[in-house]
């Protein structure tokens, strides 16, 4: 039902300078895998095969990563290093990748609108790959796709954040319709101290219905002089329905140093079996989406 996932990946990643001066933030590795690959795996687990990536200047390594590298494959063929390419080979085998360039970095709303060309007129998922989400059982996007099947409206992932972090996020409030589900009626991007309607912060997972594109088109520049997706979603919430879902699982903000280090420690513990003398990488094969 949700067949495409949009990855806005054109941002400058200024919180991670100088590392992101010439390297895309999305390609920063957590243990041995780039952030965006975790996002693509999450989308595949949610049954989505088409990855639509919004690129910017200097982001070519993302395209190269999701492509075959025959020289390298030839070089390590028959050695024990081949094992390290199993995951990415599987991703390339299962998923299709399409790319579009965002010529001006005018905000997340503008990046999503740029992706319209690749998405067309159908509901779609959005993953911000610097928000690394994990859950032992259903992935966060899988949980959201299941909700979409039930409610057929836009759904945004939210998480409670401490008081002193509220000003860094888009914050929602709404009518609680279930323990973990709110019908949104208020939304504000990076509220000033004391003006937030709640402590429920939007994180980088969305399911959007395609009417969002028209709403973004008539959204004026907002906080930070950018076209904010939050402002367009608020319009959608006011004339229709937007649900905010308190997902099950952990989320690491890998757009900043602290969250990135926490994610690295978490995945190192999770992915490696620590034997007596050497570390062994544990793999969980992806299921082919049907
Ligand atoms: P961020 O707000 O994290 O911005 O964007 P950023 O540029 O990536 O990072 P900082 O804040 O300067 O450190 C959220 C997501 O939206 C994408 C980013 O690539 C990131 O995945 N984005 C943002 C775009 O694709 N285009 C934009 O114009 C803005």
TrEMBL record:
Organism annotation: Candidatus Photodesmus blepharonis
Function: May play a role in stationary phase survival.
Gene: galU
GO biological process, one term: UDP-alpha-D-glucose metabolic process
Annotated signal sequence range: none
Keywords: Nucleotidyltransferase, Transferase
Protein name, entry field: UTP--glucose-1-phosphate uridylyltransferase
An example Gene Ontology molecular-function term: UTP:glucose-1-phosphate uridylyltransferase activity
Protein family membership: Belongs to the UDPGP type 2 family.
Highest taxon, organism lineage: Bacteria
One matching Pfam family: NTP_transferase
EC number: 2.7.7.9
Domain Nucleotidyl transferase: 9-265
SUPFAM superfamilies recorded: Nucleotide-diphospho-sugar transferases
Reaction(s) the record says it catalyses: alpha-D-glucose 1-phosphate + UTP + H(+) = UDP-alpha-D-glucose + diphosphate
First-tier enzyme category under EC: transferase
């Amino acid at each position: 039902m949700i067949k495409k996932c949009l990855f806005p990946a054109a941002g400058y990643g200024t919180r991670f300078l100088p590392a992101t001066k010439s390297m895309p933030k999305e390609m920063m590795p957590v243990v041995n895998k780039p952030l965006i690959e975790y996002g693509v795996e999450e989308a595949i687990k949610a049954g989505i095969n088409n990855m639509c990536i919004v690129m910017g200047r200097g982001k070519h390594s993302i395209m190269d990563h999701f492509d075959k590298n025959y020289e390298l494959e030839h070089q390590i063929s028959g050695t024990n290093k081949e094992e390290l390419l199993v995951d990415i080979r599987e991703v390339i085998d299962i998923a299709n990748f399409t790319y579009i360039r965002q010529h001006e970095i005018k905000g997340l709303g503008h990046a999503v609108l740029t992706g319209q060309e690749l998405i067309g007129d159908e509901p779609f998922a959005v993953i911000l790959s610097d928000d690394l989400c994990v859950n032992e059982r259903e992935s966060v996007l899988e949980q959201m796709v299941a909700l979409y099947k039930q409610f057929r409206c836009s759904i945004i992932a939210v998480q409670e954040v401490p008081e002193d972090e509220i000003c860094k996020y888009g914050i929602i409030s709404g009518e609680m319709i279930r323990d973990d589900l709110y019908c949104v009626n208020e939304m504000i991007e990076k509220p000033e101290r004391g003006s937030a309607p709640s402590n429920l912060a939007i994180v980088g997972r969305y399911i959007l219905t395609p009417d969002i594109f028209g709403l973004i088109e008539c959204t004026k520049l907002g906080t930070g002089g950018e076209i904010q997706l939050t402002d367009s979603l608020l319009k959608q919430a006011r004339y229709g329905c937007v649900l905010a879902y308190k997902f099950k699982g952990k989320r690491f903000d890998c757009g900043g140093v602290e969250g990135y280090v926490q994610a690295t420690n978490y995945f190192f513990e999770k992915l490696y079996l620590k034997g007596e003398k050497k570390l062994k990488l544990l793999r969980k094969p992806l299921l082919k989406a049907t």
